[in-house]
């Protein structure tokens, strides 16, 4: 076991080191893209907490992304940089609150109904952003500039450079990954996984399963809010499309592509999906169709995503047992 | 800039000056829209109920139907011949999709099915672009159905819309007989309620699933075809109908044809009255109805207890 | 998608055709370049338009018409060859900043032509304001704020502002004696801006704006029947709407089937009957719209453009093609003025601000806020074509409120 743990740690550190070198080797466009991927990776791993550990398939995760993003945009002053120390916690708080409100209603359902009810609430959030002039309407809303970290009038850090913003996002990704890893290994994490595999039993054992499911939903929403804030300031622009069902679908795809229930898989899935999309779009005008074909083939031939593939390569016998 | 003449911010606009006929015609609009929605949603709920598959590509079959109606009626000059030719074609596409894609997924969870059928949407859209391009097309209403019935001094009602409603009723009745009075229907019911039991009784589940999926595709394509003359045929037409039919299926209870009918009527009426009485909130209505129903009954109106 | 590649012969035809009508081609190719070094290096034109999804046809027509225009001038801008870098914007605002950065920073383009979608355009302004040496030419997106609050020295528009398309018909409605008017559009930014412009035009012409009732339908719903029932119950003197593409086809057919157009006439923004009349058929007859172009405009440049476009692409020319064509003209004129020197950004901008573009829609110039000052035509659909009734507003200029250029 310790050998595996050491290997995992080594791989993790190597990946982080590699990601830290990105700004030195790529141009501005790819740096911007990597920043976006890092933020999407936070979304993917937060969604994995629901999918892979709590057994709750949310088709509305983009709603919390959107709340975090719009809160970040609305809180930004019109003609100066926002203070991240104030706007970020407030944006996360907004996403958490919305996740709680939606969660209270959504956890009454399960299975396909849960998928659909989360979709319904996310679509309602979409139309709030789309139809309301207050939020900027269908054309979206511009943000004046990237945020600063300020204490009073003292600027501790100005995040307006692309490199520093990339490192900030990467830092949040690493912190989120570590936090979520700790959460799934904690007693709380054990309980939600127990609920996923057999809710009746956990209820019989005296656990208030609804409360645990709600807590899991809210935690995932909070991290999605963080990612939404980071995405909003990456583009310095927010638009209703960030909350659309296609966006939620894209997030689900990242998790499945990477392999749910692993945390690292969905993060890799985020990277791979965006990379494949970029590659195909550069290659041909018919890239949409090829993307569809790619998805179909992945689903048919890689049942547990990349993580499943890795497990099969690394320990073939165990993976077969997993496959069942 | 002059002050906007519109009064915004009021939840409901109650039309004192409007007569009873206004509300009756709105009800007619809602019911008529509901019939069409039912036709689309019925195939989706069948596939849901019998096979346990969430088929996001259902809207693509609607799209295929609409484009086939345009293409074949332009070639043959007759919508009904187009339907006769197009229907077997789209059923065949449905059958092929089941054999070559969906059949790999029966043992997998809902999520992977969602993803696979999402990939299919992209492939079908690409096919539409290659075959028919990005233009918007119209399909002519057959001459003998092109008239209108006068309703009020300012409004008339197209005969073809009534025809759509009758076609939908006919299909609904047909479906009822198919499911409750035929052998195929019996196996469908058996497959829906207990897959293992059905298998134990010697029903070939593979053939059953292929047949049901093809039937679902056929229903979606048929709705696309008969709706084509009052719709425009354009890229993205499938996605618009997909989300609302998913909502209907869930409201009614997954797998329940009766439920799909109730859900379709609810959404149709809510749409008609919502658009005119609370226009600022019209975009929420479909989802609001669904959220409310699910909070009230977490397994839909006619759904069984959650497993 | 590259329709440009498959028509070598027809391309040569354009060269002859367009050179004869405008004489621009000769000017562009004959001008000697000021800079010997790098004169052969191509000028990079980034194209960021939708090539998939609902707006794909707009992207295609704009691109093909622009390439056709530049090909007619020998595929040279200011004596230098052109390299196009096409990118599918997908009309997706969340991808707009990345895509624009890819063109501007990744591929170092000299011009960005795009987009169609206003949300994408808003996001792109973010990138353009940080890249003052690159010039953005908007060949469609009509959001007013693009050439108002969000205007910038390096952002130009060759199409229209939403206000521009609809302001003139407000006055026309008043002149025709309509007092009780219903407007109906999708509940989204473009629709709201256009409906507001109709009211403004109506009021400025002396009409009483309280006679206008604004109706909305949730975007992108096309189930119009409930609203038609409402219109029939309101019994207005006239109805004005804005829809485009599939929505336009469906609305026009639904309206004709439910309401007698002779009793309650239908007016619209030109997009209602633009490239859609064939699909609308009989139902479109008699609809009156305003637009900065019409297929029936009777002068040589327009006729040649329409014929050439159809030969090159096999599709009918539409207003989006016109906007693409004029975008090509603007690039040609500006680069000819600086002799192909892409470094002379301020000179390019100055020349773009001061040229007169003589295109299929007639002559137009740039306003101070970089939006066309152009004729808006009043048109009526007759036998599937938009027949010109006259000028709805001559050389209309967007007010540019909030732009400090």
Question: What does it look like?
Answer:
The complex is a heterotrimer of chains A (324), B (307) and C (405). Chain A contains 14 helices and 4 strands. Chain A has one domain. Chain A has a two-stranded antiparallel ribbon with strand order 1-4. In chain A, strands 2-3 form a two-stranded antiparallel ribbon. Chain B is mostly helical. Chain B has a single domain, classed as ABC transporter involved in vitamin B12 uptake, BtuC (Orthogonal Bundle), CATH 1.10.3470. Chain B has a two-stranded antiparallel sheet with strand order 1-2. In chain B, α1 crosses α9, α2 packs across α9 and α5 crosses α6. Chain C folds into 2 domains: 227 residues, 3-Layer(aba) Sandwich (Rossmann fold), CATH 3.40.50; 148 residues, Rossmann fold (3-Layer(aba) Sandwich). Helix content of chain C is 41%, strand content 21%. Chain C has 13 helices and 15 strands. In chain C, a hairpin with a 2-residue loop joins β12 and β13. In chain C, α6 runs parallel beside α7. The longest helix of chain C is centred in the C-terminal third of the chain and has 19 residues. Chain C starts with 7 loop residues before the first helix and ends in a 9-residue tail after the last strand. The N terminus of chain C is likely disordered. Chains in contact: A-B, A-C, B-C. Chains B and C meet through α1, β2 and α10 of B and α3, α7, β8, α8 and α9 of C.
């Amino acid at each position: 076991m310790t050998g595996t743990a050491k290997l995992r740690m080594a791989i993790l550190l190597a990946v982080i080191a590699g990601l830290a070198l990105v700004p030195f080797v790529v141009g501005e466009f790819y740096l911007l893209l990597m920043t976006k991927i890092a933020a999407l990776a936070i979304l993917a791993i937060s969604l994995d907490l629901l999918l892979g550990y709590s057994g709750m398939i949310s088709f509305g995760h983009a709603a919390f992304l959107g709340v975090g993003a719009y809160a970040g945009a609305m809180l930004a002053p019109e003609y100066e940089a926002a203070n991240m120390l104030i706007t970020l916690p407030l944006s996360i708080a907004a996403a958490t609150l919305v996740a709680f409100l939606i969660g209270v209603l959504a956890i009454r359902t399960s299975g396909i109904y849960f998928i659909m009810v989360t979709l319904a609430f996310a679509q309602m959030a979409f139309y709030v952003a789309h139809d309301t002039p207050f939020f900027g309407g269908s054309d979206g809303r511009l943000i004046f500039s990237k945020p600063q970290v300020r204490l009073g009038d003292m600027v501790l850090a100005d995040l307006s450079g692309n490199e520093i913003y990339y490192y900030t996002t990467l830092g949040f990704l690493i912190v989120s990954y570590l936090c979520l890893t700790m959460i799934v290994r904690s007693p709380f994490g054990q309980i939600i996984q127990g609920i996923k595999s057999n809710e009746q039993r956990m209820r019989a054992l005296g656990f208030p399963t609804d409360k645990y499911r709600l807590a899991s939903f809210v935690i995932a929403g909070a991290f999605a809010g963080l990612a939404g804030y980071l995405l909003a300031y990456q583009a310095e622009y927010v638009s209703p499309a960030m909350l659309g069902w296609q966006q939620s679908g894209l997030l689900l795809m990242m998790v499945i592509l990477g392999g749910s229930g692993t945390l690292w898989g969905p993060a890799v899935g985020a990277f791979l999906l965006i990379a494949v999309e970029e590659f195909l779009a550069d290659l041909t005008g018919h890239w949409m169709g090829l993307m569809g074909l790619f998805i179909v083939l992945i689903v048919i031939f890689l049942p547990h995503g990349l993580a499943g593939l890795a497990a099969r390569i690394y320990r073939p016998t165990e993976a077969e047992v997993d496959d069942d | 800039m002059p002050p906007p003449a519109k009064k915004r911010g009021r939840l409901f606009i109650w039309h004192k000056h409007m007569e009873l006929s206004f509300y009756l015609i709105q009800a007619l609009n809602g019911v008529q829209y509901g019939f069409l929605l039912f036709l689309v949603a019925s195939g989706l709920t069948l596939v849901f109920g019998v096979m346990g598959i969430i088929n996001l590509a259902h809207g693509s079959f609607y799209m295929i139907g609409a484009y086939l109606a345009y293409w074949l009626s332009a070639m043959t000059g007759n919508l009904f011949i187009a339907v006769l030719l197009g229907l077997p074609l789209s059923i065949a596409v449905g059958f092929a999709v089941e054999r070559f894609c969906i059949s790999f997924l029966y043992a997998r969870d809902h999520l992977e099915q969602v993803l696979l059928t999402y990939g299919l949407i992209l492939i079908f859209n690409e096919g539409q672009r290659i075959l028919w391009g990005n233009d918007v097309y119209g399909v002519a209403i057959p001459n003998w159905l092109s008239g209108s019935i006068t309703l009020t001094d300012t409004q008339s009602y197209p005969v073809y819309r009534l025809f759509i409603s009758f076609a939908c009723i006919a299909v609904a009745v047909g479906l009822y007989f198919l499911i409750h009075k035929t052998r195929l229907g019996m196996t469908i019911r058996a497959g829906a309620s207990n897959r293992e039991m059905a298998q134990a009784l010697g029903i070939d589940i593979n053939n059953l699933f292929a047949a049901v999926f093809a039937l679902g595709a056929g229903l979606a394509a048929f709705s696309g075809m008969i709706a084509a003359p009052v719709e425009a045929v354009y890229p993205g037409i499938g996605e618009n109908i997909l989300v609302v039919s998913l909502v209907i299926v869930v409201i009614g209870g997954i797998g329940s044809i009766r439920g799909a009918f109730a859900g379709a009527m609810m959404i149709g009426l809510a749409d008609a009255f919502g658009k005119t009485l609370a226009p600022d909130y019209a975009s929420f209505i479909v989802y609001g109805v669904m959220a409310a129903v699910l909070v009230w009954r977490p397994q839909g109106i006619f759904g069984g207890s959650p497993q | 998608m590259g329709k440009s590649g498959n028509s070598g012969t027809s391309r040569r035809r354009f060269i002859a055709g367009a050179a004869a009508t405008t004489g621009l081609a000769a000017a562009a190719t004959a001008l000697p370049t000021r800079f010997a070094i790098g004169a052969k290096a191509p000028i990079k034109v980034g194209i960021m338009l939708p090539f998939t999804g609902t707006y794909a046809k707009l992207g295609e027509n704009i691109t093909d018409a622009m390439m056709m225009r530049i090909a007619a001038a020998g595929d040279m801008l200011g004596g230098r060859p052109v390299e196009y870098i096409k990118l599918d914007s997908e009309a997706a605002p969340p991808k707009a900043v990345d895509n624009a950065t890819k063109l501007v920073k990744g591929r170092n383009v000299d011009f960005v032509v795009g987009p169609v979608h206003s949300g994408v355009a808003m996001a792109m302004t973010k990138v353009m304001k940080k890249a003052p040496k690159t010039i953005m030419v908007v060949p469609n997106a009509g959001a007013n704020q693009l050439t108002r609050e969000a205007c910038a020295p390096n952002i130009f528009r060759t199409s229209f502002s939403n206000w521009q398309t609809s302001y003139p018909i407000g006055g026309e409605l008043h002149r025709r004696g309509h007092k009780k008017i219903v407007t109906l559009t999708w509940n989204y930014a473009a629709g709201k801006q256009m409906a507001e412009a109709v009211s403004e035009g109506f009021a400025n012409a002396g009409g009483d704006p309280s006679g206008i009732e604004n109706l909305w339908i949730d975007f992108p719903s096309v189930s119009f029947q409930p609203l038609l029932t409402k219109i029939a119950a309101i019994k207005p003197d006239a109805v004005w709407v804005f829809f485009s593409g599939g929505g336009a086809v469906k609305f026009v057919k639904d309206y004709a089937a439910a309401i007698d157009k002779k009793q309650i006439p239908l007016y619209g923004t030109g997009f209602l009957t633009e490239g859609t009349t064939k699909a609308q058929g009989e139902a479109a007859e008699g609809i009156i719209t305003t637009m900065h172009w019409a297929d029936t405009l009777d002068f040589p440049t327009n006729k040649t453009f329409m014929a050439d476009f159809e030969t090159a692409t096999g599709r009918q020319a539409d207003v989006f093609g016109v906007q693409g064509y004029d975008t090509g003209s603007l690039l040609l004129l500006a680069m000819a003025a600086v002799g192909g020197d892409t470094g002379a950004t301020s000179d390019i901008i100055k020349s773009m601000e001061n040229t007169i573009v003589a295109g299929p829609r007639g002559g137009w110039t740039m306003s101070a806020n970089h939006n066309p000052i152009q004729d808006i035509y009043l048109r009526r659909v007759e036998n599937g074509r938009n027949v010109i009734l006259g000028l709805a507003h001559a050389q209309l200029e967007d007010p540019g409120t909030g732009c400090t250029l």
